[in-house]
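Narrative progress, year one. The postdoctoral researcher (J.K.) led the effort to move from monomer predictions toward full complexes, under supervision of the PI. The following entry was the first complex the group processed end to end, covering 1158 residues in total.
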Amino acid sequence: RGLLTRLNTPICIVCYLAAIVWFMGLAFEPFTLRTDMSENAMGSTMVLLRGASAVPRQGVRSSQKTGAVSTWLVKAMQSRGLEVFTQSFSRKLPFPDENKERYMVRGTNVYGILRAPRAPRTEALVISAPCSPGDSNNQAVGLLLALAQYFRNQVYWAKDIIFLVNEHDLMGTQAWLEAYHHTNITGMEYSPLQGRGGSIQAALSLELSSDVITSLDLILDGLNGQLPNLDLANLFYAFCQKLGVLCTIQGKLQRNDWDTAEGYTHAAQTMMLMVLKQACGRSWGDHGLFLRYHIEAASVRGINSFRHYKTDAATIGRLLEGMVRKLNNLLERLHQSYFFYLLPSLSRFVSIGCYMPAFGLLVVILLLRALDLWVHLGAPALAAVEGVTEAQQPSGPAVLTVLTPVVISHLTGVALYLLPVHLQEMAVEHFPVSETEAVVLTAVAIYTTGLALPHNTQRLLSGEGTEQGWKVLKLTALLYLAVLLGCTALINFSLGFVLAVTLVPITASMTPHMPKALSALVMVLLSPAFTILYCVFIYQELIEAPVSVSEGWMLFLSVISQGILDHALYGSLVYPLLALFIYPCWLMFWNILFWS
Amino acid sequence: LDSRLPLVIFLHALTPAAARDEFQEELVIRPLHSGDIYASFQFRTLWDTDFLQEGQKVSHYRLFPKSLGQVLSKFSVRELHISFSQGFWRTMQWGQPFIPSPPGAELWVWFHDTVSDVDGNWKELTNVLSGIFCASLNFIDLTNTVQPSASFKPLGLGNATDHRFLRYATLPREIVCTENLTPWKKLLPCGSKAGLAVLMKSEKLFHSSFHSQAVHIRPICQDEQCSSKAWELRQTLNVVFDLHTSGQGKKEWSLFKMFSRTLTEACPLASSSKVYVDITDNPELFELSPATPLLGQAVVLGDRRTYSVYDLSRAETFGQLRSFNLLLRDMLRPLLHAERYVAGFGLQTGEIHTVIYNNHPYRAFPVLLMDSVPWYLQLYIHTLTVTSKSRDNKPSYIHYQPAKDRHRPHLLEMLIQLPPHSMTEVTVQFERALLKWTEYTPDPNHGFYVGSSVVSALVPSMVAMRTNFTQDQPLFSSFVPVKEESSYFVRVYTEPLLVNLPTPDFSMPYNVICLTCTVVAVGYGSFYNLLTRTFQVDEPSPPLSKRLANLIRRIRGVPLLT
């Protein structure tokens, strides 16, 4: 104990550095594991691929011109021998989505079910393709129909296959999934489904943006950082290898030169991209919404990166056929492989056991500091052993002095969570801004106001902040932060880690006796909002599209509006987590800095 | 055929004292609206005897299979219905089947009211039947057996209503295949050697969209006066062939294409052997070759239908029964239709939704809904709601028997009035139980099955049903006795459910067991070794250097090293 209190600061610094080094080491290939198929039913069975050939995308295009996609799709699916159903949905967004330019959304999902012969409708697979107005995903819808036609004539299906063409990308998927499971989490209005296929075992989403495809990108990050079982990624990789298709993850091809600096940087960049994408907690493809329902899902996105090597639609058809057939062979849900992992490349993964120590080292700092404080708080009490009653007397006001800042910072958090969306009309009336801008700027304003608010709170009550007062408050705040980050990291490692990297140094070292102006500046620069800003810049850097400061600022604002929208539309938890818990916690430390 | 006929007569003459028995066989082919072909075989053996009479032991069997007869008399069975199905009957596409059955295996038995230990008899009976039909019926035990109070009434003679003598069980997971078909075929008097059973080639029968085989045994009246009892054994086999996959887009079929066999003769033991082809929907649009002059009409499932009849006992039929073409027409929606699904997500709670459709334009009718849910889904019966047209629909009769953990399942029976042209939704919430680790199946992540719920109803008929009992009615229209002219009996099964329960990671205990075993083996091994080994003090000879040193020391006269 003596050692821990005496060497507390050096141990903390060592822990922090070790955590960063450990994390960066994860991308180094000798430290990672090679992926291999764990599921027996998908591993050794041979699948002979024949593939769908003709891709009827002309029909999609022409029907889009006349604006009757759903009727055309119903006919096209019916003529391929599927049971076809439609579902209409509508939703008014809390405020206009400027990225996708929509506010009042009304759409129709069309889905056809290929009934497996002699199967009792207990299990199903889903292949989906988003079909939005415009030319964007025609290729995928065409491929979907071609697959349906080919699959219909095969006899080996053991699970029903649902071909879903969803309008308005994620919103359509959300409406369909909610109707399929008869839940309503987000207040979407939809018509009930007429046909079902039992419990869905796996889903694939297909996005082919252009006619020329040079490589396929696999997208795994789902809502709230959920990931599908690693076997799904393995399956995709195995078939890409077999068919000689270039496959990427996070848009990055795999490199073989892990022992060179470039090779390592490449792997680290890929992993960082995954961490950033996972941390933001949004669904990066239609598959992301399936994960909530315990349906393993991934998106396959065709990319035209202007290479010489081109992949034709028939090869992609064969790839999908292979994947669906292997999934059809499944006897149990995918459960053999990992659910928590990071991928520095498609063939290498970092399992939860490897990356958790990096986070653990960061949280240990908080606990060590808390222990240190606890010892310091206990020491005077021990010294005054006789005056037990006297030692207990100040604990009454101490609780109150701790409680007031806690309550006030949480009320600020609640305001940050509720007000932006609810005050938008008022803001639009009084200021010359659009609704979206109003929401985002209100959020920023409340965030900034929160900094000014709680300076004097404890003085109102107890008059003078005591030395013990801030220590108790800091002890509470440290433990609170440790629990918060720990819980976050269990669900979404990346979010927990990114928050811990920025929050831990300032929170661990914060005392009221530091130079106010400098430490206030450092604290603001490492606050949750600035963390988001840095993430935006790093992300742009990693996807090789660097932005200037003003562009970055605009992106930052749109990220905030997207975060609020994701919460309202799909139930993403990052915005409430930041507003209701992380930000108030940070405010408590801000309060300590201005303790007097 | 002609050469065999005298032999049959001869056999008849030899056994004048035996009770009269009779065998009929029949095949109905019905082109479905979805473009598929529905083929339904029915074989009926009638025997004017009574197994259950006291003191009289029936030992002389002719057409009736002896294996079943012995079972009936040993276990005092009054009525026995067993079905094995692979696949789900798609009511919305195919209409009503002649005899419905749920996916998997279903068994329901009425015992004679003299039986004292019904559960014991039931247990033994399921084991015997599982041997006869090569099926896993021995998995039926008290945890999946229920006693429905209203849904399953005896179909034969006698109006026993005390449901203590009824046992009902389903095995939704049962997979039906060739090994179940062979013993089923062996129950036929001609086996698969002659008659319609020649067509039952398993390779083709199991290459279909739906396959169902059943055995129904019940007592019926011998004649219209109903003075004495006869036993009826009906064996049915229903298949739906998918023309889309096999026909390369052409809506054309023949017996040979479907079964890879043609008919050559009737079963010589059969008193009647007929093939019916349903031509109601488009009598002039398809061409049947050879054409038949015989047209029959039958009222079945509330609809008057026209059939071309081929009598196999007449020689002129065997020209060739071959290809015919037909076209599609829009179908009428089936009047009664039901489906079921699990709502919600997560592994803690869920909700079972059963949706029943009444598609009749103006008539309301009551249905009996029966649900049997395994105990590991703990139903919250207070959350039971029945809504029709978004209004609360109060069932007029509810029979609910709560489950006992590890002993018996939930049983819920309700009589619900369905308003005309409506959708009625029955929902009930449940919580998923945590099983003991030995109770999980070998593949726990596959999920656990909940058997189909059963909707039984008297559906208003569009045409008058025939209530009188005549012998020359086709078999497929005479299975369920019709009591009124204005309605007919229908039973609809919903799809079974697959529910995931919270499942531990079983590889973890496995690893622990492996590790423990290794540790125990190594630990025990060395400990045992230590205990049983006899130790001897070994006088080590000192090493050479020491001996040399001692030699020198002895010469020098200093004390020696030890």
